[in-house]
Amino acid sequence: MFSFSGFVKSLGIVLLVLITISFTVGLLNINHIGVLLTIMYSFTYVLNGVLAPLLNQRTPYFASYLSSITLTVLNLIVAIYLLDVMVLADPAEINRGLFMNSTISLLATFIVVMILKRKQRNSHA
């Protein structure tokens, strides 16, 4: 069964880490914005993929996919309303973002699930 509280916890942790990283990068005053955004979002979606199976043991892939889509939509909303960037003007870019973000998150979830299965198998042996 899907754990909504685990879903909300993982989203909260990921958003808190994203805000902390953004604040730290802002304090360091690094000017390579493209590289920083790529690293920051990749780390965020990998963290999402790691936390999803830990907080939703029964449905790790669905939780990872749903939270990555939710994070992507939140990023689009922030880009539109806070930064005044017209991201909805290019549907191909939205599709690429949804695909890449959910792929990163699901790959991280797959790796974590395989590690957890291996640990469980070795502990019973």
Automatic annotation (TrEMBL):
Q: List where the protein spans the membrane.
A: 7-27, 33-55, 62-83, 98-116
Q: Keywords on this record?
A: Membrane, Transmembrane, Transmembrane helix
Q: Which domain of life is it from?
A: Bacteria
This chain belongs to the protein called Uncharacterized protein
Q: Which organism is it from?
A: Cytobacillus spartinae
